[in-house]
Amino acid sequence: MAMAFEPEHAALQGFKTIIEPFRIHSTQQIPFPTREERLEAIRKAGWNLFGLRSEDVIIDMLTDSGTGAMSARQWAGMMEGDETYAGSRSYYAFRDAVHEITGFQEVIPTHQGRAAERILFSILGGKGKVIPSNTHFDTTRANVEYSGAKAVDLVIQEGRIPSSEHPFKGNMDIAALDKCISEVGAENVPVVMLTVTNNSGGGQPVSLENIRAVRAVCDKYKVPFFLDACRFAENAWFIKMREASCAHMTPMEIANAMFAQADGCTMSAKKDGMANIGGFLAMKCPEVAARCRDLLILTEGFPTYGGLAGYDMEAIAIGLREALDPLYLCYRARSTAYLAEKATSAGVPIMKPVGGHAVYLDASALLPHIPREEFPAQALALALYVEGGVRGCEIGSLMFGDVAKMELVRLAMPRRTYTQSHLDYVGEVIERVAAKARAKELNGYRIVEQSQWLRHFTVKLEPLQAYKL
Ligand SMILES: *Cc1c(COP(=O)(O)O)cnc(C)c1O
Q1: Which of 18, 59, 311, 334 has a CA-to-CA distance to 443 between 20 and 30 Å?
Q2: pTM (predicted TM-score)
Q3: Which cofactor does it need (predicted)?
């Protein structure tokens, strides 16, 4: 994957190709269902990609959550996992890694990010409270609202415009944050959240300058400030690449600087924890942490394991540090950009600039003949599957209903899992599907069965015309 020479790749001595900075040590067979088998599988699944089995999929880009490959070091760490119920050595290794990166003293392990959110908002949320963020991730919003509080998204204007090339489209609108807190009253804002990178906005980063500005507003109103830190390492890399004052810093130094501005964080270790499961809640305040631990014992587990096995905590302790390796981050950002270039050269518009963990294809631009009511992004996602066995995820009217602002297909990048040739293949599949789209050979869908909440997971659809063989 050629790119402009990166200083971090001085090790490559002037060669332009950013290679995967790992060798493959164990492999998993990729299934190769035929096109006929794929059509049959998706028909049986009610034209819902969530209904497929992994054997039905050739390249799975449904999500980057928990789908990455662990390193030999992480697997070795798992063998050292200490399954002691109370006071496990693995907990202390985990706590030390989180502390080294975040500086937070109070480290509470949970089974996933959403468990950390549920515990935090059970304590800080409640009726009448307002919790601002750049953009709440869907589980975060759901947990805020379940507590009775209101979740407010205050991302900068550019963050809502797909074609805007702003380098930090995840930034909080600082004036809007100030206005929001002064209007509802600081006593009704128990915490300000900031998602790094901004997942729902396309994996767009937040600048260190913006993080500091959020801190200043929180100081002015004496409101605590938490990061939703799921992709903190990718965010640190974008800061290094795009924020001139940080260019000389290591990703670890930048992560330290990001967390130094905050009072706490929620984290899904399934993202930049480089693990297949896990999460944590970390903070400065011992009093709030004590209340969180009371809830933790109720539903997750004893405070030195939360919802995790000792071996999970070992894997996360190692994974968190590996996520900050500049060679890894350079390769990660480069491979996402590489896939984006493939889509662009196939004439498929994408959300810009390319974020950290996924490429978002703009279905409404490619399929102007399919109206919103017929789910153009789902039509595109289904065509990528039927034509090439590539599974992405619809992020549009099927997921959000009438309030959807865009019709996108997200191709998420599992960490350290696919190679450049896999991405070349995905690029070819995109090309073939784009040609079909331009020939108006793709058609819309209608819903035949749906549930009231988060319908996209279980909805059943029907093509409006028979899918062309
Ligand atoms: C994945 C994610 C979560 C939730 O984490 P889970 O481990 O899936 O429960 C929260 N916030 C963001 C930004 C995420 O990407």
Answers
A1: 59
A2: 0.94
A3: pyridoxal 5'-phosphate
